[in-house]
């Protein structure tokens, strides 16, 4: 699986880093003398960033798409300390190879609500 560009023009790894940095900056503005850590995780399926499901129908669609197909889970990490102008941003990528789920397993997952 190669890095592809997301719909907003960013590589998914850069998008994950941007989200983590935005979270850290939001807090660091209030605490400029403290070390602040921000993190965010996204799913990259063939260059498409998969967000959180909006409802059970969307959760089913995403579950059926991802399970049985390799995809990337990317976590962006940002460490800031504004008073010292310290800023480190990085990411880690894991390729997940999930097994195919049977319809009953998907039903149980959706009904269990853990996707919400």
Labels describing this entry:
single chain, 116 residues, alpha+beta, Maf protein, four-stranded antiparallel β-sheet, 3 helices, 4 strands, 33% helix
Strand content: 25-35%
Count the beta strands.
4
Q: What is the number of helical segments per DSSP (H or I, 4+ residues)?
A: 3
- Taking the alpha carbons of the first and last residues, their distance comes to 28 Å
Give the number of domains: 1
Main sheet characteristics = 4 strands, antiparallel
Which overall shape is indicated by the principal axes computed on the Cα atoms? elongated
Q: Which architecture name does CATH use?
A: Alpha-Beta Complex
* Major β-sheet strand ordering: 2-1-3-4
Q: Residue ranges: pLDDT <50 for 5 or more in a row? A: none
CATH topology: Maf protein
Under CATH at level 1, the class stands as Alpha Beta
* Radius of gyration, whole Å: 17 Å
What structural class do the secondary elements suggest?
Answer: alpha+beta
Quote the average pLDDT.
Answer: 92
Secondary-structure map with pairings?
Layout: H1 12-28, E1 36-45, E2 48-50, H2 56-66, E3 71-81, E4 86-96, H3 103-112
Antiparallel strand pairs: 1-2, 1-3, 3-4
Helix pairs in contact: 2-3
Q: How would you explain this protein's 3D organization?
A:
This protein has 116 residues and is an alpha+beta fold. The protein has one domain (12-112): Maf protein. Helix content is 33%, strand content 30%. Strand 1 and strand 2 form a beta hairpin. The longest helix is centred in the first third of the chain and has 17 residues, at 12-28. The two termini are 28 Å apart.
